[in-house]
Protein: Prealbumin-like fold domain-containing protein
Organism: Corynebacterium phocae
Amino acid sequence: MVNKKQYRLGHIFGVFLLVIVCTFVFIVPVSSAQPSRTPNFLQIAKLLPGPEDSYAGLFDEAAIVGAEYQALKLDGLGDVTPEELGQLVKDNPELLTDEPGVEVAGTFTATSDDAGVALFQGLEEGIYQITEKSRRVGDVPELLSSPFLVIVSGTTTAVRSKIQPLTVTKTSHEPEVQYKDEIVYTISSGVVQPDVNGKISKAQVKDSLDGALEFKSVSNVVISNLDGDVKLGESDYLVEASGQDVVVSLTDSGLTKLSKRRANHPETTLELDLTATVDKMVLGNTRIDNIAFVAMDGYCGFTGQDKDCIDSIPAVESGVASFHTSPFGPIEGIITGIIGLLITGLGIGHLGKMLLNFVPEQAQPAPQHTDVPSKASDRWDGGKLGDLAETGASVLGVVAVALLLILAGWWLIGRKRRNEDEAELSSLEGEK
């Protein structure tokens, strides 16, 4: 007969076996239903610029070692192929900002090794936003990668980062202009990423005007990104004009606004309008060139000691051209241009002065001959003898202008008569 003690031990042992059996019955099937997760790797290679880049020679291996990358896993974008990533960013530029507009499922960081390769380990498959963090302090050159999206799938995904260039565009609202017309140029530039302290130390725009233009004003200085536009006030920038060069520099207050707007917004732009006047009469179809240069942190500037920099990235440039047109026909335009050039070369005020000097003063008695020249012998009709050549040349200039004006008038009258004759002939033929 089994005693109570043996019964209890048998009962406990039976319960223990039952628990083990239940564990295998319920847990094992659940475990077998879970998908196997293979850890994924992402390699980002950072390379030095090639010899064809403007950055060439400014950086060594230290620029690619210790670069810190951040990866954000973006959920809710659906099934996207690598070929569709570019269009996805164009349609949704906020995906490259710190507010991508979709759920962020995780944040990861990695630092590049001696070979310039940053390795992310244990990532889940999906779409990741990759951003390189700035390491510079102040106005120094930096080899920084552009933010981008990458699809992590399979065991290892390897990509190469691209250097983030400073882009500049310049447009003209008046492709064809005439004498005394105003031209409005719009200059738009990308903005460098702030340094580790969140600051941008320099932002300058230089415009080199064509010789036929005269600077008038700078207006509508605006910082733009996905969060909206911020128009800078007159205290936020300084305009310096010297000859044909105009330099617009952001002041401390303007740089503070620019730094705040640019933080985590790579799409940020700085834009301004520059107005100039066509102040010279030139021949029709003459090309009027205008070039803009932009310099920010790490780029050669245009004022002070920064003009002589040798260890910075060359300023980025963008040009645009307008064409001078004549209100007359081709031949009349040439004649008008020649007249304009003569008048511009001689000067209207100078012509008037010469015409006045040409009027003789009251007749003076003939001077007596002496060994010492008298003051009267040094003058002729109110002008110095030394001015005779200048006066003669001026008279010839006036005569040339008069002849050209007569020629232009003759041409215009002749052309008008020909047009009237052609119109009359056409009307007669129509009546027949």
